[in-house]
Each structure stands twice: as structure tokens, then as C-alpha cells.
Design goal:
The complex is a heterodimer of chains A (479) and B (94). Chain A has a domain of 251 residues: Amidase signature (AS) domain (Amidase signature (AS) enzymes). Helix content of chain A is 38%, strand content 13%. Chain A has 15 helices and 11 strands. An 11-stranded mixed sheet of chain A has the order 1-3-2-4-6-5-10-11-9-7-8, with helices on both faces. In chain A, helix 2 runs antiparallel to helix 3 and helix 5 runs parallel beside helix 6. Chain A is globular and about 70 Å long. The two termini of chain A are 21 Å apart. With 94 residues, chain B is mainly alpha-helical. Chain B has a domain of 43 residues: Glu-tRNAGln amidotransferase C subunit, N-terminal domain (Histone, subunit A). Chain B has 3 helices and 2 strands, in the order αααββ. In chain B, strands 1-2 form a two-stranded antiparallel ribbon. In chain B, strand 1 and strand 2 form a beta hairpin. Classes of the chains: A alpha/beta (479), B mainly alpha (94). The interface between A and B is large, with 72 and 52 residues.
Chain lengths: 479, 94
Amino acid sequence: MGLNECTLVELTEKLRIGEITTSDIIRDIESAITQDEGNKYPLNAYTSFDIESIEKEIKSQNKKEDTLLKGVPIAIKDIINVMDTPTTCGSGILKDYISPYDATAIKNLRKNGGVPAGKLNMDEFAMGSSNENSYFGVVRNPHDRKKIPGGSSGGAAAAVSANLAVAALASDTGGSIRQPASMCGIFGIKPTYGRVSRFGLIAYASSFDQIGPITNTVMDGAILLDAVSGYDPKDSTSANEKVPCFRDFVGKGLGGLRIGIPEEYFGEGLNSEVRDIVERGIKILSEANASVKRIALKYTRYAIACYYIIATAEASSNLARFDGIRYGTRFVDTEDLETLYRENRNIGFGDEVKRRILLGTFALSSGYYDAYYLKAQRARTLIREDFKEAFREVDIIVTPVSPIAAWDIGELIDDPLQMYLSDVYTVPVNLAGLPAASVPCGKTKDRLPVGVQLIADHFNEADIFRVARIIEEGEKGAE
Amino acid sequence: MKIDKKTIQWVADLANLSLGEEEELEMEKQLLAILDYMDILSELDLEGVEPTSHTLGYKNVTREDRVGESFEINEVKKIAPKWERGHFVVPRVV
């Protein structure tokens, strides 16, 4: 077994006793990547994996103290700034951009002995549910290379699932960690909004964006979240809340835990195989002494409209900074400034990014602001209250992650609305700022992985880890 | 909601995007379908409901105004698409 196939728990132990070095792990990862490149349909999970700069990272790693991660290499979604490496956001307009600084999450990772190693492919500016919108090309699903890996963190999910990375840091705005984790059969958690600093995470929709881990096991996810969480004065929306030690909760029993099942998440549109798998997950939990209760989240059907208005409005404002003047690529020079902005943005942005900028600009424009943006902000309050009420009665809400398993590459690319609708079970969580994870729970008859979503109240990631571990164990037992 | 070619051109103008003619047509068709779907929100009675901009309700987060670290001019130069004598180069504006 190669070191690239080990868990974080195994690797940190091997590093601790001096049996291996970080370079040994990198060598095995590199050889797995090279082998994958020889495949007829390579996964295309990385935008860059530069051995020279990784060697430099290894030399400068924190070796002074006994750290949590002890030198384990962590691959990074290409939306997070890592000093002196390209950070492209999967976009043409940033294809030449080299980060002059570290995101706070990366600083925390380094402090805890993690070594940033390689940047992962993604939908351009994290806009997409299939990883078909990258300037660097489509990412494929390791379980079936004709299928999408999910998005926008498709590179992260594919890499971790196929052991081209031992673990990854990604970001989730409307499901971008959970949905690809589900489709690639691995663990991914979006923490509470504010749990991990957004400083240095390139902004898509600032009131939703959140950094989180994608890993092979629940315990690895807890370790990585332990390493990057915490308040940061550089992010005014980061939460000044105590961070519990998440790994202490992995393996704790469920005695007395109350599980809520919202009927709105099991209605029309949910594929029957996916439903069966999620119901199996619920059965595992009730057998582990959790009490299961039906609940209602009656505003669920408004979540997609609400999310896509607010997210695109925020995106249209956030992406105004990309103009080919201060950073990024200037493709053409023109006689006047306005034309320079327009021409360069038009060349630099892909179709989905332009579509969302237009949609968001429209929703914020004078005459339509009240009818779209303000209305969506109000609807957001109802959706948030819906969850608040539910969490008076239950501790964890269990739902599907995606209504269907991974679909064919190209299947939905010409129908953006259908693609948006596939996010129906993940976006409500971002609207309410809640933590939620996807944990693998089985496969369809076509051998495509399906995850279940575990949603908790604000800052209660600990219960998610407790529950996720029970499903992970129960699922392994069933295989 | 009715949007037409003129609306698309107006919005593109606001967003500093110059779309090609084919692109305009495609966007018009797609945005029309998307905005049609967004009308679902009209079913809601939102009278008196406060809008949410931050889910945890944080407001006016302030800090001491202190001099901090910033980028060296050389770092800025490295990431600038066009740079001359300590400045970004842009087309003539006046």
C-alpha cells in the first residue's frame, strides 16, 4: 500500500516515529498522479502540482514543535491563497496570478504542521455543480470517468477519492464541499459560517462562503478542521467562539441524540436509489440509539430561488475587482479604460461566471432591487427561522445531499436552471449559515457513491462528527 | 418578468461586460428561464419580515485603527499585468 493511500491518522503516526518523511508521501502522491495521467481519461484533479515548490514548502515546514499534522501534505482547492503558488480559481483571468500571501486557513494549517501541496481544479470561481466550468478543463469522477465528480470542489473530491491527495482543503458556498464528497464517496464538512476565516479565500458569495476539509475518513476530517478553525481579526465575519477539539467527538456514542427527518427533502425529484441509501443511513442511527423524529422545513422549496439571487448578487459585486489592471491577466490593450475592462473581462471569464454576474447585476439594479434582492433576503430569514425552530426539537437533521448520483459529463451543461435545481438540498444550509457534512452511505446499482447529509445547529459540528462516525462504521459493516 | 435584448445590454453595460451578439441571445434565453423560476418567491407573504444579511446577526464589527503590515511595492509589481516606474499602467483617462 502506497503512503498516498494512508489516512491522516496513519501518516501522522508514521511521521511521529520517524518511519517516513513528508517527501516519501509526496513521492507516492506524485507517482499516483503520473499513473493517472496515463489513463485514457485522466481525472484532471490538479491545476498545479509543482514538485520544486513543494520541496521548498517541506524545507520551511514547522518542525520546531510537536504539531497536530506532523508534516502531512494537504492539497488545496485553487481558490485559497497559498503564498508563492499560482491561485487561479479555475479562471482564465487569474491564470497567471501568483499569490503574494497566505490565507489565514493556510497559516493555521502550517502552524499545525500541515504542508500545502498542490492546487486542485474547480469550477471557475466556485460557480458550478459539476466541475465542467474550469478554464483548466473538466474533472472526472474516479468511480466512473464518464461522470462528473460534482462541484465546485470536483478536483478536491476526485483527488482524495482516487488517493491523488491524502486530504484536501476546499470551500462550500452552496454545497461545493458536500455534493462532490457525496458523488466521489468520501467525507466532507462545511463548518458553521464564521468557524474558519475567509481571509485569503477568493470571494464568490461572501455571506455563504466557508472553508472546510474533504477527507477519506470522518476522523481525518475532524483532525483537519481542528487544524484550521478559529477566530481571525482579519475576517470581520469570523466567529469569536470557542473551538472544541472535534476529534474527541469521533467515536462517541449517540445515546439520547435526537435525529430529525424533514419530509420536504424526501419528496418529488428524489431518485429512489438515493432515497433507499439515505434511509439505510437513518436506520443505522436509530439502531445506534438515536431517536428519530419527522420534522417540517416548510420553506425548503424557496431555497434555490433565494440562494441564486443572493449568491449571484454578491458575486457580481465581488467579481468587479477582476479588470486586468492590478492583478490577473490583461489579454488585450485598448485605447480607453472602459473598453479595457470590458474586453478583458469578456475574454477572462467563462460562460457560467458571466451568466451569474449578469443575473446578480440585474437583481441589484435600480428598479429590480426590491423585487429580487430584497425579497430574497427576506425569504432567507424565513428559511433560517425554519431551521431554528427545528433545532429546538432535534440535534441533527438527516437528508440526502443531492437528489441524484453523479450524472454524465455534458448532460446538464446547456441547461443552467436544471443544474441549479440539483443544489436543492445543500443551499438551505448556506442560507442559514449552519454546519453540515456529507458522509458516504452506499452505492447505486451502477456503483456510484451516495452520501447522506448531516446538518447541525450553529457551532455544533461536534454532533455531526459523532453521528458521521456511526454511519461510517455501520456502512463499512454492511459492505 | 420580461427581459429582452435591451435589458441584457443594459445589465452587461452595468457589469462591464461586452457580450457578442450570439452570447447576448443565449444569455437572454437562459436568464429569462431562470428569472421566471425566481418568481416562486412571489408566493411568500413577506410583509414585516426583516431581511437577513448575516446569519449570526453580527453587526458593526470594529477594531482599533492600527498600522499593520502591507505588501512591499516589489510584491505588487510582481502581480501587476503592466507596470512602469512604480505605477500600474492604464490607458489614458484624461
